[in-house]
Amino acid sequence: MAEQDALSERNELTEREYTRSDRERRDRSWLRAMRRARRAVAEPLVRGLGARGLRGLVKTWRVEALHPERRDRARAGHGGCIVVFWHGRMIPAFSQFMEDELTILVSVSDDGGLAVDLLERFGFEIVRGSSSKRGLRAMREMLDVLAGERTIVITPDGPRGPQHKVEPGLAYLARITGHPILPVGFATDAAWHLKSWDHFTIPKPRARVVAAFGEPVWVEPGAKGADLAATREAVGETLLALEREAAAELGLEVSA
Questions:
Q1: How many CB atoms within 10 Å of residue 2?
Q2: Which residue of 33, 36, 123, 190 could cross-link 207, Cys pair, CB 3.0 to 4.6 Å?
Q3: Domain for residue 55, yes or no?
Q4: CA 78 to CA 216: how far, in whole Å?
């Protein structure tokens, strides 16, 4: 009797696993279909009106900057630096960097391709790559950019997350170039938030947008594994603290 009960339980568990597996496959298919539909809608919008519409939106914002002297200090004597902010804050970042000569690291995904088209319309230079694709080649291109005393922008938790986790390459890039990392946190009092892994933020027309600049972070030339890991951790904590500071300026608490 006990053996029959055990066999019945195993069969039931197996049936549940098959059911769960089928459901997960359907969910993945649905997500892929949603991504294709999103790209089908987004691509003509980005290529047609994206840059013009975004530039117009940015001009309606009421923009404030906290500690802008830190930005000047990061660039002094170097001509460039490594600007970092969270992936979900790319649109608010236009409030501070829209007119700057920047090179931006963008993923090689299809969505990254849409971003490239938009960013190039603003006159930004692009490096394609991520920690998982074209990583080494992207690193070499960024080294060339910084050698030319230009500023490069990296979203250290992109392109796929996890949210607010700094990828390893950032501290290494700062070490071998001698250029400082400039962390920037953003907050806004009115925004749309996409249901994406990074809670992508789009400030609404007439929103207040606050940027909080952090102290520049230099990485010693002799820094090794533990030191680089500590820098990554510190940059992540600083970005979160800067977002809290920017939100406090608006009388708000930080939400993801």
A1: 6
A2: 190
A3: no
A4: 12
